[in-house]
Design goal:
The protein is an alpha+beta fold. It has helices at about 30-40, 110-120, 140-145, 155-170; strands at about 20-25, 45-50, 55, 60, 65-75, 75-85, 100-105, 125-130, 135-140, 145-155, 175-180.
Length: about 180
């Protein structure tokens, strides 16, 4: 069970259920970014390393880290994820390159996860992302071929992500890969 946290908010919280992100597990993040940039003009991509400490996967604490690149394509946030190791996590289970999850906007993460669980779709991973917010993954692999993710983020993170979207809208193709830095306010 996940408790409500009124300090956090989803991307597009005013549009619950909207698809806000496509997440892909990749073998080589540099090659994946190059393909997305060339074939779809998604970008620019913002790159960071995230420690998975604080996440719970199938009831067990997670160790390890992921290399992440995110960039907008129109109104969809594209997330490319390369696990840095083989430690058990949502990103190493069923590891195959391709669509890993779709993130849906939520007005109430706890209620949406509870609704999914009532439908028989178990929450298999969840936890805090230190300094960013929290996320939960629901197992819809058998029904949809990927997981569903719900996330709630701090206001500085939401502001940073909105800045990434603005950069995409005015982007001329230069500086296709940039550091992921969260605004302080």
């Amino acid at each position: 069970m996940i408790a409500a946290d009124l300090r956090l908010r989803s991307i597009a919280a005013d549009r619950p259920g909207a698809v806000v992100q496509l997440g892909y597990v990749v073998d080589n993040i540099d090659s994946a970014m190059a393909r997305w940039l060339r074939w779809t003009m998604a970008g620019p991509f913002y790159r960071a390393r995230f420690d998975l400490t604080g996440q719970i996967y199938h009831g067990h604490p997670v160790t390890g880290a992921i290399d992440v690149a995110i960039g907008w394509r129109d109104d969809i946030l594209i997330e490319l994820i390369q696990p840095e190791d083989v430690a058990p996590s949502i990103y190493t289970e069923n590891r195959r390159p391709g669509l890993h999850h779709i993130m849906l906007a939520t007005a109430d993460l706890a209620a949406d996860v509870a609704l999914q669980e009532a439908e028989g779709n178990a929450m298999i991973a969840h936890g805090d992302v230190p300094g960013f917010g929290r996320a939960a993954f629901v197992d819809t692999m058998a029904e949809l071929g990927h997981y569903l993710e719900y996330g709630e983020w701090t206001e500085p993170v939401l502001s940073t992500i909105a800045g990434f979207r603005d950069a995409h809208r005015g982007w001329d193709g230069r500086e296709p890969v940039r550091p992921y830095v969260v605004n302080a306010a």
